[in-house]
Amino acid sequence: MVLRGVFPGRFQPIHWGHVKVIEWALQRLDELVIVVGSAQESHTLSNPFTAGERIEMIRAALEDAGIDRSRVLIVPLADIYMNAVWVRYLAMNVPRFRYAIARNPLVVRLFKECGYEVLIPPPFERGKLSSTNIRKMMLMGSDEWRSLVPPSVAKIIDEIRGVERLREVAGRD
Ligand code: NAD
Q1: Which residues contact 171 (CB under 8 A, 6 or more apart)?
Q2: Using CB atoms within 10 A as the burial measure, which of 117, 128, 132, 153 is most buried?
Q3: pLDDT of the chain along its 173 residues, tens only?
Q4: 40 CB under 6 A from ligand 1?
Q5: Which CATH number fits the domain that encloses residue 90?
Q6: What is the DSSP letter of 127?
Q7: 43 lies in which domain range?
Q8: Of all protein residues, whose CA lies closest to atom 23 belonging to ligand 1?
């Protein structure tokens, strides 16, 4: 059987830290399924981008990093708000896998409870390389976020006017 793992995340947006996790996982596995979680969410402060936009950004990031796309699958998955059965629901929507890649404590816990082995990557400059940090910079009007994401991801965010969207949904009436 193919040595396959799943890597769930919201990727709001994908940044170099996520990319390093993907590279780290592919050094240990044959194939990685990137699960774009909270696929139903968009246009909010913590989830500004649609699942489709996030898939585009992930593909662009893989391209920029020179990662072999034939070893990566990208699957969008809406939340179900029933943590106890989430892993079973995820498993129903992706090819068979043996490993989960995560640092998010809830995600680690849920996979372990279901009997999956969890590979925990190191924190790659976690203080800086974080989507929350990136969204904060966007809101503050700092261009520093551009260095934290692959160039093609920044280009897509510009094309969809992502920063403007984030600022508008943060506004008050
Ligand atoms: P995220 O994009 O913030 O992070 C994805 C993963 O990458 C996490 O494990 C995180 O720790 C890791 N990571 C991020 N930056 C890193 C860095 N610099 N170095 C090393 N690792 C880094 O996404 P998230 O919020 O963790 O996504 C979890 C998804 O699973 C969400 O969509 C959530 O809704 C979903 N979920 C759903 C249910 C449910 O529906 N009941 C239950 C659990 C989780």
Answers
A1: none
A2: 153
A3: 899 999 999 999 999 999 999 999 999 999 999 999 999 999 999 999 999 999 999 999 999 999 999 999 999 999 998 999 999 999 999 999 999 999 999 999 999 999 999 999 999 999 999 999 999 999 999 999 999 999 999 999 999 999 999 999 998 87
A4: no
A5: 3.40.50.620
A6: T
A7: 4-170
A8: 9
